[in-house]
Predict the structure.
Amino acid sequence: MPKEIQEIPISLIDPFPNHPFKVRDDEDMNALIESIRSKGVIVPCLVRPKKDGRYELISGHRRMHACKSLGLDTLRCEVRELSTPQATIIMVESNFQRDTILPSEKAFSYKMRLEAMKKHISRLVQNQKQGFDLGGEPVEDQLELARSNIARSYGISREKADRIGTPDGRKRKDIGGPVGHPIKSRDIVAKEVGESVTQIRRYIRLTELIPELLDIVDEGKIGLRTAVELSYINKGMQKEIFAIIDKNEVYPSHAQAIRMRKLDAEGNLAKGVVGQIMVEAKPNQKERIVLSAERFEKLFPKNLPEYRREEYVEAAMEYYARYLQRKDRGHER
């Protein structure tokens, strides 16, 4: 089926609901603006029609922002009929082509994609019950593929994956979407994003942080594992933690975050306790390991964001420690 490309008035295009990726006026945006000024929109944006005659933008939020900055009235778009789960998955995966993605963007996009995949499975279950073939393909085959993928990509047990869309799982009606337009396997199967299941789970946990703390994570002032521990603390105490950070410019260590999470679970984390833990001297304040930028810069992958360097060093040291253990065991034999 040929693509339907149209010049659509920007005034009729709505952004994707709760779009998790930030559109920033930075050097990359300036370069995009200049490219569109001289060559136009080379790759069409992707939209889907809405019932009220408007359109929902799925892919191309930065391109639309650039066109608005240039004062253009229309946007070159491909128009496709897509269900909400289809649109969500495509929106997330198209944005993962970017070089730099903030922790908060990963957090909400992974969560949105997970929920979209759950809805897609629920729809397949409903269509299976009604005896439909989806796009000429047996529903059972696509259902098996979807369940296997969601279990593998997000670390969900197969038992739980099999309950999605059933009376034993979360109750929901058939979410719709035209039969005959399935989410193809290339859209369902998780693309390689360089993340383990554990990392994906950690990022999804970040959605439980208050916005103020999540901003600090994006700035690289709180590490991922520390942020995950903080995400389990109730929102009221998270606000207190941010207030202390904002006032004293001190940031919790991983060990401190673990302590506060444990106290919160026991019901013993009060404002005064948070203050005492946060302002106490940390081991790394007494003795810090400083890495020479000139010596180590070349060892980091070129496309590795600066805020992920600590995580990269930790993973490398863990890998090397396992190598030494295997080597020692070899000598013992």
Notes: The CA atoms of residues 125 and 165 lie 6 Å apart. The chain has a mean pLDDT of 80. Strands lie at 5-9, 13-14, 45-49, 55-59, 74-79, 133-134, 137-138.
